[in-house]
Write a structure and sequence with these properties.
It is built from seven helices and five strands. By secondary structure, the protein is of the alpha+beta class. The chain has two domains: 16-95, no CATH class; 101-223, no CATH class. Strands 1, 2, 3, 4 and 5 form a five-stranded mixed β-sheet that branches. Strand 2 (122-123) and strand 3 form a beta hairpin. Helix 1 (16-30) crosses helix 3 and helix 2 runs antiparallel to helix 3 (61-95). The longest helix is centred in the first third of the chain and has 35 residues, at 61-95. 26% of the residues are buried.
């Protein structure tokens, strides 16, 4: 009988340390100052812990050792945080200006409590300008992707639709594009997070459901419907 061939082993994913090294190399190639900022975070944390060790430990060798160990751990944490921020900026800067870049941010980096689709809610097939929508405690955020002079019309059209269906929900408009006053792609998540919360969780859920039903069915919404007045069904 012919011997059965063993199935080929799946390619082994790189370990955590190797992944971090790859991220570091990518970040270093894009941002030449990243290495210095990482070193500053690491060494600065240790230096602060050494100073505190002399001031607080009261000459205790054990206390000084603990402070130094804590400083090393804090330095590693600071270096990791700085690397993460720099890597995120480098990754987003590489796709900045490309169609669908805002959708990539919405897919992976929206703040907690916010929902958005990687697909635009309005777009111009010729110019590839687009409008993306996110919903959260701050209401509705519309993000125009492309030059403001072209994307503004798409954004205003979408804003009128939202205001017609949800007249009591605040709408915040942001632009990601080449204009000086536009939001850089790597700061988009931060800009959405800064939107002041005005809705409760039930109100946010009602708004999400209303907009998702609009997107999925395309049916007109009866006039005068207010999501804030929707009462939850009682359990039978």
């Amino acid at each position: 009988m012919a011997r059965k061939e063993k199935p080929a082993k799946a390619a082994k994913e790189p370990g955590r340390l190797k992944q971090m090294w790859q991220v570091f190399q990518m970040t270093r190639r894009y941002d030449k100052t990243a290495v210095w900022w990482i070193l500053l975070g690491f060494v600065g944390s240790i230096a602060i812990s050494v100073v505190l060790a002399f001031l607080i430990s009261g000459g205790s060798v054990f206390g000084m050792v603990l402070w130094i160990i804590a400083g090393v751990l804090a330095g590693i944490l600071a270096a990791m945080i700085i690397l993460g921020r720099k890597a995120e900026k480098a990754a987003y800067s590489q796709i900045s200006g490309q169609p669908g870049a805002v959708g990539a941010v919405f897919r992976s980096s929206l703040p907690r409590g916010w929902q958005g689709s990687e697909m635009p809610v309005n777009a111009n097939a010729k110019t590839q300008d687009a409008v993306y929508r996110a919903v959260g405690r701050g209401g509705v955020v519309l993000v125009g992707e492309g030059p403001r002079s072209r994307a503004s019309r798409l954004v205003e059209d979408e804003k009128r639709k939202v205001n017609r269906v949800l007249p009591n929900v605040p709408v915040t408009v942001l632009f990601v594009g080449p204009d000086e006053d536009s939001v850089p792609l790597y700061k988009l998540t931060r800009s959405v997070r800064k939107v002041k919360p005005t809705l409760t969780k039930p109100e946010t859920l009602a708004v999400m459901n209303r907009l998702s039903s609009l997107s999925s069915t395309g049916l007109p919404i009866p006039k005068g419907v207010d999501p804030f007045k929707v009462k939850p069904q009682r359990a039978r």
